[in-house]
Amino acid sequence: MEKFTTHTGVGVPLRRSNVDTDQIIPAVYLKRVTRTGFEDALFAAWRGDESFVLNQPAYASGSVLVAGPDFGTGSSREHAVWALKDYGFRAVLASRFADIFRGNSGKQGLLAAQVAQEDIELLWKVLENEPGTEVTVDLVERTASAGDVTVQIHVDDYTRWRLMEGLDDIGLTLQHEDEITAFEARRESWRPKTLPAKHLPKQEIVAARPAGA
Amino acid sequence: MAGTLAEKVWDAHLVRRGVDGAPDLLYIDLHLLHEVTSPQAFEGLRLAGRTLRRTDLTIATEDHNTPTLDIDLPIADLTSRTQIDTLRANAKEFGVRLHSLGDADQGIVHQVGPQLGLTMPGLTVVCGDSHTSTHGAFGALAFGIGTSEVEHVMATQTLPLAPFRTMAINVEGELPPGTTSKDIILAIIAKIGTGGGQGYVLEYRGEAIRKLSMEARMTICNMSIEAGARAGMIAPDQTTFDYLEGRPHAPEGADWDAAVEYWKTLRTDDDAVFDAEVTLHASDLEPFVTWGTNPGQGLPLSANVPVPELIADENDRIAAERAIEYMGLVPGAPLRDLKIDTVFIGSCTNGRIEDLRSVAKVLKGKKKAADTRVLVVPASARVRLQAEAEGLDKIFLDFGAEWRNAGCSMCLGMNPDQLTPGERAASTSNRNFEGRQGKGGRTHLVSPLVAAATAIRGTLSSLADLDLPEGTDLTTFDGSPLAPLDPNVLVQV
Predict the structure, then answer these.
(1) Which of A47, A152, B290, B427 could form a disulfide with B298 if both were Cys (CB 3.0 to 4.6 A apart)?
(2) pLDDT values of chain B reduced to their tens digit, one per residue, 493 residues
(3) In angstroms, rounded to a whole number, what is the distance separating the alpha carbons of residues B6 and B8?
(4) CB contact under 8 A, B199 and A26
(5) Any binding-site annotation on B127?
(6) Is B348 marked as binding a ligand?
(7) At B76, phi and psi to the nearest 5?
(8) ipTM above 0.90, yes or no
């Protein structure tokens, strides 16, 4: 995972609350089996609207998204994080994030930092008054600055450390493999196993046909 | 020390307590997979040269992309077919049990786990799908995860998790006739908002919850995520044990006895303290519908479309204006007058046998509204078989509905079952986001009973709007659990 300490890039004001992951990337784009190449899918339903913020030249190359509250709600799709990253975003600032989205971001090196809503409003004003203004997000100092505005950002200590070190979770966990094995030895026998498979007798499933066919 | 249900299950899965701000490492009892959020995780394992640690705690099914028509033909959409083929190849390569399209155990992943008896109290259950919260109805700690976490569970059978807070949702009193557990959860989300549960595990408690069947409890826990909570739980009781006993993977003999003895301890201690509490009176509830584009934008069916000018909070007002425009609504107009183009009955929220039974009971002997399309999509192939054994399919077909094969279907429109731009749906599913059921589609979330009444009248309706025969007992419209299974017919493969 790429390390994240500070990042400076064009700030994009997204004045919407409850931006769910279906808006970040609609389900039709989830059929791909790759982890990259989702830039075209980001906010796909809104990209056709000329007035949408990313369609304005000054914001098109944005890399710091400043969004309304409850960003990333809904589906667990990590594709939402991949699409933001593939487009070029390195950080999202909002007053509240959905839990799964925030977790997914942390795994992929996308900074999802909490900022008080009144500070979001200050950043929005700067970015809207001077489209193309850059935002500097400093994870070391826990600040975000744009123009003459500097605000606090909130990231939990552990996520911050992992982002700054660029650490891979699986590698970290496997350092404790002996503890996992010891735990497995203690598990009760009633806990279910999927194998060998048990099920009711096989039955033929009749295919439904289109109405009128 | 006194603990809540969620804390007890958490503590029983601690592989390692986190120090210096590091998260706890939790063991995962059951990992469910489907075709959409797993391919990149399998690829990650392959690239790192890792194996899938516990194939015997992992099970996969095909649900999101699968067509609900012509399932014996090759999948027409090539990208969907590729994704399904990728899951099949990965399952084979890594040794994962897979129930494919056409198999009697195929279906929506959150129905497959419970009906096989794999979902049980006291487990940790994860899946790359946010509606994994469904399994919390059994007293399991169950939550959706992203693909990086899917890969993490595949490789280690654990997850590093930051501690959560606990919220009690007390639902007191008794549900009025014609209302269901769907109305309870829609009312809860409208009350606490789509962000109200962020950072919390919810525990649904109270008289109204205890009286619900297992399937009705699953509907409530399913939509915990719509209130922002990763997980929602209900303490196991006799209803839970009765549902589980005799299912293919339920414990047997001494294991069953030991399990039940332990499961009975899985309740919040009387002196335990929740970080937050919310109380709702079920007796006040009416059939609930959503009018907007997030599940928190819901109102009783008897209400009118909100008037944005009257909303004080600026963010809420802007959101309401946008939603009203997208949904093509008139502020102040009665919700009851809305004409519905499509009724969708299905999904991991309301596609189970009880849902189909209660819908069939309303539709029996009637004909659908002339201009309304009605889709009935069972949550799993077993649910379809059971419905057919009970003759429900005949009722749906005589009514003029389409009776489909199992899958996620129109809930998220990854398969051909989609709304067209501007099309208005009454849907028993879980999300009314813009474009969720098809680009430009307009979704109103409803209970199965409201869906059924709407299918008859062609406008958003409840049972009270129907000319039901004098003396019809509306309280029996909640169905009964799946018939107990005969353990003697279990097979092993």
Answers:
(1) B290
(2) 689 999 999 999 999 999 888 899 999 999 999 999 999 999 999 999 999 999 999 999 999 999 999 999 999 999 999 999 999 999 999 999 999 999 999 999 999 999 999 999 999 999 999 999 999 999 999 999 999 999 999 999 999 999 999 999 999 999 998 899 999 999 999 999 999 999 999 999 999 999 999 999 999 999 999 999 999 999 999 999 999 999 999 999 999 999 999 999 999 999 999 999 999 999 999 999 999 999 999 999 999 999 999 999 888 899 999 999 999 999 999 999 999 999 999 999 999 999 999 999 999 999 999 999 999 999 999 999 999 999 999 999 999 999 999 999 999 999 999 999 999 999 999 999 999 999 999 999 999 999 999 999 999 999 999 987 766 666 544 433 333 333 333 333 3
(3) 5
(4) no
(5) no
(6) yes
(7) -70, -40
(8) yes
A/B interface, count of CB pairs below 8 Å: 273
Residues 409-428, chain B: which have Cβ within 8 Å of A? 412-414
Could you tell me which of A16, A6, A4, A134 has the C-alpha nearest to residue A64? A134
Q: What CA–CA distance (Å, rounded) separates B205 from B438?
A: 36
Measured CA distances, B65 to A81, B259, B409, B420 (Å) = 21, 36, 8, 18
Q: Are A197 and B68 an interchain contact pair (Cβ–Cβ within 8 Å)?
A: no
CB contact under 8 A, B315 and A68: yes
Does the beta-carbon distance from B402 to A69 stay under 8 Å?
no
Query: How far is C-alpha A91 from the geometric centre of its chain's CA atoms?
Result: 9
**pTM of this prediction?**
0.95
A96, A157, A161 member nearest B195 (Cβ): A96
Give which of A2, A25, A33, A176 to mutate to test B binding, by max B Cβ within 10 Å. Answer: A33
Residue A78 sits at the chain B interface (C-beta within 8 Å):
yes
